[in-house]
Amino acid sequence: MQAGTAVSNLASVVGIHPDEAAVIEQLKAGSEEAFAWLISRYQQPLFSLIYRVLPNPGDAADITQEVFVKIFRGIHRFHGEASLRTWIYRIALHEALNQRRWWSRHQRREIAIEAPGDDDQHFVSPIDSLTDTSESPFDAAAHAELAARVEAALRGVPEPFRAVVVLRDIEGFAYEEIAEILKANLGTVKSRLMRGRAHLKSRLAPYMAAAGRRPSPAVPVPLPHACSIEEAL
Question: What does pTM read for this prediction?
Fold first, then answer.
Protein backbone atom coordinates (compact mmCIF):
# COMPACT_ATOMS: atom_id res chain seq x y z
CA MET A 1 0.00 0.00 0.00
CA GLN A 2 2.79 2.42 0.86
CA ALA A 3 4.50 1.75 -2.47
CA GLY A 4 1.24 2.36 -4.32
CA THR A 5 0.74 5.64 -2.49
CA ALA A 6 4.29 6.70 -3.31
CA VAL A 7 3.75 5.95 -6.99
CA SER A 8 0.48 7.87 -6.99
CA ASN A 9 2.02 10.89 -5.32
CA LEU A 10 5.06 10.92 -7.55
CA ALA A 11 2.96 10.43 -10.65
CA SER A 12 1.28 13.75 -9.99
CA VAL A 13 4.56 15.66 -9.82
CA VAL A 14 5.98 16.64 -13.21
CA GLY A 15 9.59 15.67 -13.73
CA ILE A 16 9.91 13.32 -10.77
CA HIS A 17 10.20 9.64 -11.55
CA PRO A 18 9.28 6.90 -9.07
CA ASP A 19 11.73 4.17 -8.29
CA GLU A 20 11.64 1.74 -11.21
CA ALA A 21 11.32 -1.37 -9.05
CA ALA A 22 8.31 0.14 -7.26
CA VAL A 23 6.69 1.10 -10.57
CA ILE A 24 7.15 -2.40 -11.98
CA GLU A 25 5.72 -3.92 -8.81
CA GLN A 26 2.67 -1.69 -9.02
CA LEU A 27 2.23 -2.30 -12.75
CA LYS A 28 2.22 -6.04 -12.16
CA ALA A 29 -0.31 -5.54 -9.37
CA GLY A 30 -2.61 -3.71 -11.77
CA SER A 31 -2.27 -0.27 -10.18
CA GLU A 32 -4.22 2.35 -12.12
CA GLU A 33 -1.95 5.07 -10.70
CA ALA A 34 1.16 3.31 -12.00
CA PHE A 35 -0.31 2.92 -15.48
CA ALA A 36 -1.43 6.56 -15.45
CA TRP A 37 2.13 7.59 -14.64
CA LEU A 38 3.50 5.28 -17.35
CA ILE A 39 1.21 6.77 -19.99
CA SER A 40 1.91 10.37 -18.96
CA ARG A 41 5.66 9.67 -19.02
CA TYR A 42 5.92 7.74 -22.31
CA GLN A 43 2.96 8.63 -24.51
CA GLN A 44 4.52 11.60 -26.31
CA PRO A 45 8.06 10.14 -26.65
CA LEU A 46 6.67 6.87 -28.03
CA PHE A 47 4.35 8.70 -30.42
CA SER A 48 7.31 10.74 -31.71
CA LEU A 49 9.38 7.58 -32.22
CA ILE A 50 6.57 5.73 -34.00
CA TYR A 51 5.70 8.79 -36.10
CA ARG A 52 9.22 8.70 -37.54
CA VAL A 53 8.53 5.16 -38.75
CA LEU A 54 4.87 5.67 -39.75
CA PRO A 55 4.48 9.21 -41.12
CA ASN A 56 0.69 9.35 -40.75
CA PRO A 57 -0.15 10.81 -37.30
CA GLY A 58 -3.40 8.86 -37.03
CA ASP A 59 -1.63 5.56 -37.71
CA ALA A 60 1.15 6.47 -35.30
CA ALA A 61 -1.46 7.23 -32.63
CA ASP A 62 -3.14 3.85 -33.17
CA ILE A 63 0.16 1.99 -32.85
CA THR A 64 1.03 4.02 -29.74
CA GLN A 65 -2.19 2.80 -28.14
CA GLU A 66 -1.39 -0.75 -29.20
CA VAL A 67 2.01 -0.45 -27.53
CA PHE A 68 0.42 0.44 -24.20
CA VAL A 69 -1.94 -2.52 -24.57
CA LYS A 70 1.11 -4.74 -25.18
CA ILE A 71 2.79 -3.29 -22.09
CA PHE A 72 -0.32 -3.89 -19.98
CA ARG A 73 -0.63 -7.48 -21.15
CA GLY A 74 3.07 -8.26 -21.09
CA ILE A 75 4.28 -6.62 -17.88
CA HIS A 76 4.03 -9.94 -16.02
CA ARG A 77 6.64 -11.37 -18.40
CA PHE A 78 9.06 -8.53 -17.71
CA HIS A 79 11.77 -9.79 -15.36
CA GLY A 80 14.26 -6.94 -15.45
CA GLU A 81 16.61 -8.28 -18.12
CA ALA A 82 16.75 -4.68 -19.39
CA SER A 83 15.56 -1.38 -17.96
CA LEU A 84 11.82 -0.67 -18.11
CA ARG A 85 12.45 2.21 -20.54
CA THR A 86 14.50 0.01 -22.85
CA TRP A 87 11.86 -2.73 -22.76
CA ILE A 88 9.09 -0.23 -23.61
CA TYR A 89 11.01 1.27 -26.53
CA ARG A 90 11.76 -2.21 -27.85
CA ILE A 91 8.05 -2.99 -27.95
CA ALA A 92 7.26 0.35 -29.63
CA LEU A 93 9.90 -0.02 -32.33
CA HIS A 94 8.92 -3.64 -32.96
CA GLU A 95 5.24 -2.75 -33.40
CA ALA A 96 5.99 0.22 -35.65
CA LEU A 97 8.34 -1.75 -37.90
CA ASN A 98 5.91 -4.67 -38.09
CA GLN A 99 3.14 -2.33 -39.22
CA ARG A 100 5.40 -0.71 -41.80
CA ARG A 101 6.39 -4.12 -43.18
CA TRP A 102 2.73 -5.10 -43.40
CA TRP A 103 1.97 -1.97 -45.41
CA SER A 104 4.93 -2.65 -47.69
CA ARG A 105 3.77 -6.19 -48.41
CA HIS A 106 0.25 -5.05 -49.22
CA GLN A 107 1.42 -1.95 -51.11
CA ARG A 108 -0.82 0.16 -48.98
CA ARG A 109 -0.37 3.86 -49.50
CA GLU A 110 -2.60 6.40 -47.81
CA ILE A 111 -2.65 10.11 -48.70
CA ALA A 112 -4.39 12.47 -46.30
CA ILE A 113 -6.66 14.82 -48.28
CA GLU A 114 -8.70 16.18 -45.39
CA ALA A 115 -7.70 18.83 -42.88
CA PRO A 116 -6.88 17.46 -39.41
CA GLY A 117 -10.02 16.95 -37.35
CA ASP A 118 -10.60 17.58 -33.69
CA ASP A 119 -9.17 14.18 -32.81
CA ASP A 120 -5.82 15.19 -34.31
CA GLN A 121 -5.45 18.44 -32.38
CA HIS A 122 -3.94 16.89 -29.27
CA PHE A 123 -1.08 15.27 -31.23
CA VAL A 124 2.15 17.21 -31.56
CA SER A 125 4.20 16.72 -34.70
CA PRO A 126 7.86 15.91 -34.03
CA ILE A 127 8.70 18.84 -36.31
CA ASP A 128 6.62 21.16 -34.13
CA SER A 129 8.31 19.81 -31.02
CA LEU A 130 11.70 20.81 -32.46
CA THR A 131 10.70 24.45 -32.81
CA ASP A 132 11.62 26.91 -30.07
CA THR A 133 8.82 29.50 -30.03
CA SER A 134 10.94 31.90 -27.97
CA GLU A 135 13.20 32.55 -30.98
CA SER A 136 12.94 35.54 -33.28
CA PRO A 137 10.66 35.04 -36.30
CA PHE A 138 13.67 34.80 -38.62
CA ASP A 139 15.51 32.25 -36.49
CA ALA A 140 12.32 30.30 -35.83
CA ALA A 141 11.68 30.04 -39.57
CA ALA A 142 15.24 28.91 -40.24
CA HIS A 143 15.05 26.43 -37.38
CA ALA A 144 11.73 25.01 -38.58
CA GLU A 145 13.05 24.67 -42.13
CA LEU A 146 16.13 22.80 -40.95
CA ALA A 147 14.07 20.55 -38.69
CA ALA A 148 11.68 19.77 -41.56
CA ARG A 149 14.59 18.99 -43.90
CA VAL A 150 16.18 16.66 -41.34
CA GLU A 151 12.86 14.89 -40.71
CA ALA A 152 12.24 14.46 -44.44
CA ALA A 153 15.79 13.21 -45.06
CA LEU A 154 15.56 10.89 -42.08
CA ARG A 155 12.52 9.18 -43.56
CA GLY A 156 14.62 8.31 -46.59
CA VAL A 157 17.31 6.55 -44.55
CA PRO A 158 16.75 2.81 -44.95
CA GLU A 159 16.05 0.53 -42.04
CA PRO A 160 17.69 -0.67 -39.87
CA PHE A 161 20.07 2.31 -40.04
CA ARG A 162 17.31 4.86 -39.43
CA ALA A 163 16.22 3.23 -36.19
CA VAL A 164 19.72 3.52 -34.73
CA VAL A 165 20.04 7.18 -35.80
CA VAL A 166 16.70 8.01 -34.18
CA LEU A 167 17.48 6.14 -30.96
CA ARG A 168 20.98 7.59 -30.63
CA ASP A 169 20.87 11.11 -32.09
CA ILE A 170 17.27 12.07 -31.35
CA GLU A 171 16.13 9.96 -28.39
CA GLY A 172 19.55 10.06 -26.73
CA PHE A 173 19.93 6.38 -25.87
CA ALA A 174 23.37 5.03 -24.99
CA TYR A 175 24.95 2.47 -27.31
CA GLU A 176 24.36 -0.28 -24.75
CA GLU A 177 20.68 0.61 -24.46
CA ILE A 178 20.25 0.60 -28.23
CA ALA A 179 21.87 -2.83 -28.36
CA GLU A 180 19.32 -4.06 -25.82
CA ILE A 181 16.39 -2.52 -27.69
CA LEU A 182 17.45 -3.98 -31.04
CA LYS A 183 18.90 -7.19 -29.56
CA ALA A 184 22.12 -6.55 -31.46
CA ASN A 185 25.75 -6.38 -30.40
CA LEU A 186 27.57 -3.09 -29.89
CA GLY A 187 29.59 -3.46 -33.07
CA THR A 188 26.43 -3.81 -35.12
CA VAL A 189 24.87 -0.78 -33.45
CA LYS A 190 27.91 1.41 -34.12
CA SER A 191 28.18 0.19 -37.71
CA ARG A 192 24.50 0.91 -38.38
CA LEU A 193 24.81 4.34 -36.78
CA MET A 194 27.78 5.22 -38.97
CA ARG A 195 25.98 4.08 -42.12
CA GLY A 196 22.75 5.79 -41.08
CA ARG A 197 24.56 9.09 -40.52
CA ALA A 198 26.25 8.69 -43.89
CA HIS A 199 22.88 8.17 -45.59
CA LEU A 200 21.47 11.20 -43.78
CA LYS A 201 24.45 13.35 -44.68
CA SER A 202 24.14 12.35 -48.33
CA ARG A 203 20.44 13.23 -48.42
CA LEU A 204 21.02 16.58 -46.73
CA ALA A 205 24.06 17.51 -48.83
CA PRO A 206 22.11 19.35 -51.60
CA TYR A 207 20.19 21.39 -49.03
CA MET A 208 23.32 22.21 -47.02
CA ALA A 209 25.14 23.27 -50.20
CA ALA A 210 22.23 25.53 -51.18
CA ALA A 211 22.02 26.92 -47.66
CA GLY A 212 25.72 27.75 -47.77
CA ARG A 213 25.12 29.99 -50.75
CA ARG A 214 22.42 32.00 -48.95
CA PRO A 215 23.02 34.81 -46.46
CA SER A 216 23.22 33.06 -43.10
CA PRO A 217 21.61 34.24 -39.84
CA ALA A 218 23.86 35.94 -37.32
CA VAL A 219 23.43 33.12 -34.82
CA PRO A 220 23.00 29.55 -36.09
CA VAL A 221 20.15 27.66 -34.41
CA PRO A 222 21.01 24.00 -33.72
CA LEU A 223 18.47 21.21 -33.53
CA PRO A 224 17.88 20.21 -29.90
CA HIS A 225 18.93 16.69 -28.91
CA ALA A 226 20.59 16.14 -32.30
CA CYS A 227 24.15 17.31 -31.80
CA SER A 228 25.52 14.10 -33.21
CA ILE A 229 23.59 14.60 -36.46
CA GLU A 230 25.02 18.08 -36.91
CA GLU A 231 28.50 16.88 -36.10
CA ALA A 232 28.06 14.15 -38.70
CA LEU A 233 27.18 16.79 -41.29
Answer: 0.64
